[in-house]
Design a protein that fits this description.
The protein is mainly alpha-helical. About 80% of the residues lie in helices and about 0% in strands. It has one domain (about 5-135).
Amino acid sequence: MRRYRSGVGGLLTDIHQDFRFEISGALFVVGLLLAFFAILGYVPQAREWARGVAVLDVILNALGPWIFWETILASIVILIGGLDFADTVKKAREFEKLINTTSKESFLKNLKRIDSLAREALPERYWRRVERKKTELKVRD
């Protein structure tokens, strides 16, 4: 059975692990939205267009002199969300490659890495797949 960490830091780590795809994707999208506002604030033609859309005009006026810092924040959020999503996809692909085997020998050879990915890096549904695969290949703990 998967072990959950204790404390607030552990809770946040568990939430991030269980919703890794969703959180990193949402961060990336929020970063893109912030970058859109930054473009509206810096490009004169875009700023003129935004003045015609009431909501965008209000947002740009509210940002005012803070648009520079909003641009920096947008870059950081895009970078964090994108890198986290890419790392998650990379680990999920590695997991798929390692677990999709019919050979018990190959599975046992890679079991340590499979367990590491499933328990520490990927959502709980991957750990459950490891348990099903162990049952399927009749692997004893």
